[in-house]
Amino acid sequence: MKPILPLLLSMILLFSACTAAPSGEGSSQASESSLLSSESASSQVDTAIGITDSQGASITLTTREPRVVSLYGSYAQAWLLAGGTLCGVTEDAVNERDLGLPQDVTVVGSVKEPNVEEVIALEPDLVILSSDIANQVDLKDTLENAGLTCAYYRVDTFEDYAFLMEQFCAVTGRDDLYQENVTQVGQQIDQVKEAAAAQESQPNVLLMRAFSTGIKAKTDDELAGVILKELGTHNIADDHPSMLEDLSLEEVISADPDYIFVTTMGDEQKALDYLDSLIQENPAWSQLSAVKEGRYVVLPKDLFHYKPNNLWGESYEYLAEILYPEQFGE
To answer: Rounded to an integer, what is the distance from CA 144 to the centroid of its chain?
Structure first.
């Protein structure tokens, strides 16, 4: 029996060594995998992403998937176009933009009266606001004192929109969406402007903004005014600055513009009803060439009142087809 014991002991030790080797190798692989996952997660969280808002403020975020509240429907849509998600929006994002948002997105009041408490309660990493709305500008100190990061934007031109999207896509890392929703749209606009520049005529236009209690002439301080100017038209309000405050029928009749374009603010039907009542009370309006010859156009809100975002190209084409039907008409 004694010679057998050393042999059995040797066999047990050999078996233990064989089974231990794979176990050690697996632990090493698991350790390496855990380390890589940790480094990957760390790189996503700790990478500083710097952007700039329209006021020139520098903003730093630490994730490409921040919790975002947008207090303006147009910017909410732009953020989605950049590949982001939202945890809070204002009523216009739902009622006017119809963005198809998930049910868990919180509506935090209106554009002019956002609910600050609800915004803070959402604990967003970024709050996107409009620097063109006084009530939102006034919220800056309150939100920042609550520890929230704010970014203010203003979009009046396609170039402004391109800047906005450049910042948003820098956060999401989606250059492909910038190419789709900005670069390609810019190429579309350039083609329209180039074709318009080849036209010999320079139509005279009147651009009006109508609301429920009045009307005002507008120039290139209005989205549509910028596009009209870039398409080679002459706005008669540039010759009569007083129109910007008090639209004089006599001055309009004297200038007799080739086209009259109307944008509405607030309740569109009430604005148009008010405008119709003025025309009925002043028959001279109906004698204007633009009215008699069907060149009196109410512009669609989605292209000329709300910021058109990825539809900027359609806004240019819409006006170009009216101004230069022989070149752009079907």
So the answer is: 23
- Token pair 């402004």 is found at 160
Most confident of 66-80, 190-204, 217-231, 294-308: 66-80
How many residues does the structure list for the chain? 330
Closest CA to 227 of 158, 181, 165: 158
DSSP, residue by residue, 101-141? --TTSEE-B-SSSB-HHHHHHT--SEEEEETT-HHHHTTHH
**20-34 confidence digits (pLDDT tens):** 444 444 444 444 444
**Phi-psi label, residue 56: left if phi above 0, alpha if psi -120 to 50, beta otherwise:** left
> CB-based burial of residue 1 (10 Å sphere; 0-12 exposed, 13-18 middle, 19+ buried)?
exposed
pTM given for the model: 0.82
Average pLDDT of the chain, as a whole number = 86
Higher pLDDT, 35 or 245: 245
> What is the reported pLDDT for 74?
95
Roughly what angle, to the nearest 10 degrees, separates helices 73-81 and 158-172?
Answer: 50
Determine the 3-state secondary structure of 99 from DSSP.
coil
CA atoms within 13 A on the CB side of 54: 20
**Quick one: average pLDDT of 199-218?**
88
d(CA 65, CA 173): 10
Tell how far CA 51 is from the center of its chain: 16
Spatial separation of the C-alpha atoms in residues 274 and 144, rounded to whole Å: 42
Structure tokens at 315: 């806004």
Residue 234 in tokens:
């002459």
Residue 320's Cβ-side half-sphere holds a number of Cα atoms within 13 Å equal to: 24
Burial (CB < 10 A; 0-12, 13-18, 19+), residue 300, is: middle
Identify the CA nearest to 151 among candidates 140, 160, 162: 140
